[in-house]
Amino acid sequence: MRNILEYDSVELSPNGRDVIILDQSLLPNQEKFLHLTTAEQVFYAITLLKVRGAPAIGIAGAFGLAMCMNRFRAKNLQAFDKEFLRVKRYLYISRPTAVSLMVTLDRMERCYYQAEEEAKDKSDFETIRFIRERLTAEARAIKLEDIQKCLAIAEAGFSLLKPGMGILTYCNAGHLAVSRYGTALSPIYYAQQKGYMPKVYSCETRPMLQGSRLTAYELTKAGIDVTLICDNMAADVMSRGKIDIVFFGCDRIAANGDVANKVGSSMLAILAKHFGIPCYSIGPSNTIDYNTPTGKDIKIEERASFEVTDMYFDKPVAPKGIKVYNPAFDVTPAELLTGIITEKGIISPKKLGTIKE
Ligand code: MRU
Predict the structure, then answer these.
(1) Among protein residues, the one whose CA lies closest to atom 10 of ligand 1
(2) Is 251 a catalytic residue?
(3) What residues are paired with 329 via a beta bridge?
(4) Dihedral, 90, 95, 101, 106 alpha carbons, nearest 10
(5) pTM score of the predicted model
(6) Among 234, 233, 180, 229, which residue's Cα sits nearest to residue 209?
(7) 172-192 tens-digit pLDDT
(8) Running DSSP on this structure, what letter comes out for residue 85?
(9) CB-based contacts of 140: which residues, under 8 Å, 6+ apart?
(10) Which fold has domain 4-151?
(11) Is the C-beta atom of 202 inside 6 A of ligand 1?
């Protein structure tokens, strides 16, 4: 069996003209790589969760923008500028909750104008070529930085682990959801390398089953001991003393330390508090959004009822026409978290405001 860490879920082709993703909507049954060559393909790959997980969405957005500009046949610089803003604004709204998409697209825009300024004495043709090179390099740098952050997160999270610990996780904040290694799962990969033999419990994560389809898949491929549970079994495994620590990811952290992550994460935090189990949200520091004061201010994506009633089942599992409420994320209040782990270390959620600089 191929080790999952040998390939990446999001890549830019060497010539910068294709975004290559592993289609996560088909896992674990099929490993199919898609070559995306238009803004629309990138947009739908993100909205349909073919590429998903906050950092991976951000990287896909940056790669998508670079790819589109590498392919765009511009008559002049003005047309190139216009197309850049069109694609950027279009990709910006492909998913609303994970802040990394906005962070990376805004960074690409700063890169664009910086390059344009630096090339102001060149011809339109030369300027466009220069901007393309800069955008492509910036998008690749975003991914490389994410890899470095995941490695630093792995070390920070590992400091909390002991050999043989039971770790409960939710959704997929692993290798598939980032550039490489994962956020919430990277300390687990690291612990495995160190011979700690962690015992992971993965909630299946209804309705899109990122826990069973993706986390169970990638940890199994990496040879890590993983047990799948339905989401409503979390209290049971905790009550039986099988869980020593809870690790989940984050899509956006508000300035007050409230964390938006896959819907159901807050349920684990509430249970962990009840059973006296430490609970950490893990992600890169650019997930902290100081422009969002509290969790109540985070825009929560609502998704189609089909995902609850039909998807991944042979036949519908609810009466036709049933009313469905399907938020993709929920907010874990800061006070329920033991800590937030980023590449800069571990911090109490309540102290976030004090470390802004
Ligand atoms: O809807 P998804 O699958 O994109 O949701 C993903 C999560 O909630 C992850 O836990 C989060 O993005 C962190 S990924 C490192």
Answers:
(1) 249
(2) yes
(3) 262
(4) 40
(5) 0.97
(6) 229
(7) 999 999 999 999 999 999 999
(8) H
(9) 12
(10) Four Helix Bundle (Hemerythrin (Met), subunit A) (1.20.120)
(11) no
